[in-house]
Specification:
The protein is an alpha+beta fold and 93 residues long. The protein contains two helices and four strands, in the order ββαββα. The strands form two sheets. A two-stranded antiparallel sheet has the order 1-2. It has a two-stranded antiparallel ribbon with strand order 3-4. β3 and β4 form a beta hairpin.
Length: 93
C-alpha cells in the first residue's frame, strides 16, 4: 500500500501468503529488505525515514463501496507498526 498525505509518504508492505508459512522469512527476508529500503530512501533520495515492523496476521484486501474503494492492509499488527515508527518511540530504524 502506498499513501501520500499531509504526514508524507507511507509505504506498507507485507510478506507471506494466506495459510502459508516460510521458515525464517521474517529474519532472513523481511527485516533485511526493510533496512535496505530505508537506507536507499535516505541515501539516494534524502528522505527521512522511520520504520515499524511487526509479525502477525492482518487483513489485506479491498475496502470501500462500489464507487470508491481501495486496497488496504488493516489490523492490530499494522496499528502497532505505525506506533513503533512514531518519533516518540523510534528516532530511526
Amino acid at each position: 500500500q502506498f499513501i501520500v498525505d499531509d504526514k508524507g509518504i507511507v509505504l506498507i508492505f507485507t510478506f507471506g501468503l494466506r495459510g502459508s508459512t516460510f521458515p525464517n522469512m521474517i529474519a532472513s527476508r523481511a527485516i533485511p529488505l526493510t533496512f535496505t529500503i530505508c537506507q536507499s530512501l535516505q541515501e539516494e533520495l534524502g528522505i527521512k525515514v522511520a520504520a515499524g515492523a511487526t509479525f502477525e496476521k492482518a487483513y489485506c484486501g479491498v475496502v470501500g463501496g462500489v464507487n470508491r474503494h481501495e486496497f488496504a492492509v488493516l489490523g492490530p499488527a499494522v496499528n502497532l507498526a505505525a506506533r513503533l515508527m512514531s518519533p516518540k518511540h523510534n528516532s530511526d530504524v
